[in-house]
Amino acid sequence: MSWILLVEQTLNGLQFGVMLFLMAAGLTLIFGVMGLINLAHGSLYMVGAFAAAAVAGATGSFGLALAASLTAAALAGVVIETTVIRRLYDRDHLDQVLATFALILIFSEGTRWLFGSFPLFLDRPEFLAGTVSLPFGIEYSKYRLSLIGVGLAVAAGLFWMIAKTRIGIQIRAGENDREMIGALGVDISKLYTLVFALGAALAGLAGALIGAIQSVQVGMGEPVLILAFVVIVIGGIGSIQGALVGAILVGVTDTLGSFLLPKVFSLFLAPAAATSVGSSLASMAIYILMAGVLLVRPKGLFGGA
Amino acid sequence: MKRERYLNFALMALLLFVPLLAWLLDEPFLITLTTRAVIFAIAGVGLNLALGFGGLVSFGHAAFFGLGGYAMGILAHHAQTYTPLMEWPLVIEGTKSMLVVWPVAILTGALAALAIGALSLRTSGVYFIMITLAFGQMLFYFTISWSAYGGEDGLSIYVRNSFPGLNTMDPIQYFAICYGLLLLVLFGVSRVSGSAFGLMLRAAKQNEERVQAVGQTPYRLYLIAFTISGAITGLAGALFADLNRFVSPTMLSWQVSGEIMVFVILGGVGRVYGPVAGAALFILLEHTLGGLSEYWHVYLGAILLGVVLFARGGLYGLLAGREVAHD
Question: In the record, which residues are listed under signal peptide (chain A) (predicted)?
Answer without folding.
Answer: none
